[in-house]
Amino acid sequence: MISFSTLSSLCCSPTRRGLATGLALLALRLTATAQIYPAPAPLPGDTARGKEFAVPSVVGMGPSKGLVIRYERMPRFNVASAGTVVGLQDYSSEATKNARLTIKGYIPMLNHPHLKLVLGINYEREEFQFRDRPTGYELYDNIENKGLKTLGAQLAVIRPVNTVNWYIFRVKGELSGDYNSSELSVRDYLRVSSELLYGWKRSPTFSWGVGVQLGYTFGRQSIYPALLYNRTFNDRWGVEALFPARITARYNASPRSLFFAGYSVDGLNYIVKLRQPLQRNGTNGQSDPSKTALRTLELRETEVKFRGRWEREIYDFLWFGLEGGYRYNYAFDAFDRTNADREKIIDSKLANAPYASVELFIVPPRKFLKNAPRR
Questions:
Q1: What region holds the DUF6268 domain (predicted)?
Q2: What's the CATH fold of domain 2-368?
Q3: What pLDDT tens digit does each residue of the chain (375 aa) get?
């Protein structure tokens, strides 16, 4: 059975959103064996009937998520920005609102024991409001109460090789920025991420893998290694990790109630269109003729969240999730994406703050699972 919930944990973010949420930040967990959520019966005519293929999931991991709706909010916190080029001033204020709405869905296109394809779509919106409006500062006035949006689609390929080995390949494209339908330009706003993981299923309770990811988990597009580690130690405790993007400890209170605790690194990358062109000055304080006036900025946001989470079944196919924790902001910086030097224009710092979120998600109904054979 395909467990779509782990797609988001392998993704770079999140978009916000896959180590792109996103990672968010998308990758895939396949629920191979579970006394709680048994695997589906082989499809009729499947040449792999009776064979048991390796997958990255382990016994005890939560139910598959087909549709996810999440809302996250933070209380007031201070913000401070410093201009890193001549001609830009420093500024400090207070953010009175920072909220995120996320909607994700996963559609199985192919579900054979030896090959699985999953199509994922996501929409995310982040909003800011500041104490003084207008702020009179270039960056804040352009994102004030203006949704920073992410619209994306991804394709995940899960290939169990044999009874021990498996690999996952995922590619994702997202349009990220402050666009609206009348000014959307794919060339300006497109962000692409991908990953490849190869792993070993050592037992029904232990699976691990290594690979590389290309994404925005750390603010800018970069390539970095990844280590997947899924292990269930007993009937209650387990670990689900994709290092360095996230490490989570799991506690199975019951088949219908799970608790999680750990950390995640989320990277967001937006293109922000400026209402008024921003002219870069030279060292003499005058306009620098060698630099083109900026009409857009690339906003790179990186944060680490220390979090606790509770997932609980409401009714058969409907679950909810409650999450809370503490956000450490590593960067909220704006870069020149017009001139070749790609210089940092504004260096910002968002004060660390607590956060909370609520989530509803749809899973396969139990009546579709209870008669399925166990592996």
A1: 155-273
A2: Porin (2.40.160)
A3: 444 444 444 444 444 444 333 333 333 343 333 333 334 434 444 444 446 788 899 999 988 899 999 999 999 999 999 888 766 788 899 999 999 999 999 999 998 888 999 999 999 999 999 988 777 887 888 888 678 999 999 999 999 999 999 999 999 999 999 887 566 678 788 999 999 999 999 999 999 999 999 988 877 788 999 999 999 999 999 999 999 999 999 999 999 999 999 999 998 899 998 877 777 665 545 566 667 778 889 999 999 999 999 999 998 899 999 999 999 999 999 998 877 777 888 999 999 999 999 999 999 887 665 544 443
Distances (CA, A) of 182 to 101, 139, 178, 303, 337: 22, 22, 12, 31, 22
Please give the structure tokens belonging to residue 121.
Answer: 């779509």
Q: Where are the domains of the chain?
A: 2-368
CA distance 116 to 143: 40
Q: How many Cβ atoms sit within 10 Å of the Cβ of residue 163? A: 11
Structure tokens at 43: 């499809």
Count of helices and strands (H, E) across the chain:
3, 18
